[in-house]
Specification:
By secondary structure, the protein is of the alpha/beta class. About 45% of the residues lie in helices and about 20% in strands.
Length: about 100
């Protein structure tokens, strides 16, 4: 199994899916996280990104893809839908959570 988690902001992946990610890893599955925004509304964006990667490393999850969209202003257009679709195809995921 391959699990893909989309997090609107850095830390949402841990708050919402840590248990699921750990379970998937215990089953031998690959887990990938995409942080859609830079997390800048919750603190300095670079600090949020570093915390994201450190938290995932502690779990044994691959480093996250960080799209760097502005927090609080995520686009809801066709190009963003295409990015989500492309990420699912690139990771060849069995399951995706957002």
């Amino acid at each position: 199994m391959r699990l893909l988690v989309f997090a609107p902001h850095p830390d949402d992946e841990l708050l919402g899916c840590a248990g699921l990610m750990l379970h998937a890893l215990e089953q031998g599955s690959a887990v990938q996280v995409v942080a859609v925004s830079d997390g800048g509304l919750g603190g300095p964006a670079d600090l949020r990104q570093n915390e994201l990667q450190a938290g995932l490393a502690r779990l044994g999850v691959l480093p996250a893809q960080c799209w760097g969209e502005t927090a609080g202003a995520l686009p809801r257009d066709e190009s963003m839908q295409r990015r989500y679709s492309d990420a699912v195809q690139q990771f060849s995921t069995d399951e995706a959570f957002a």
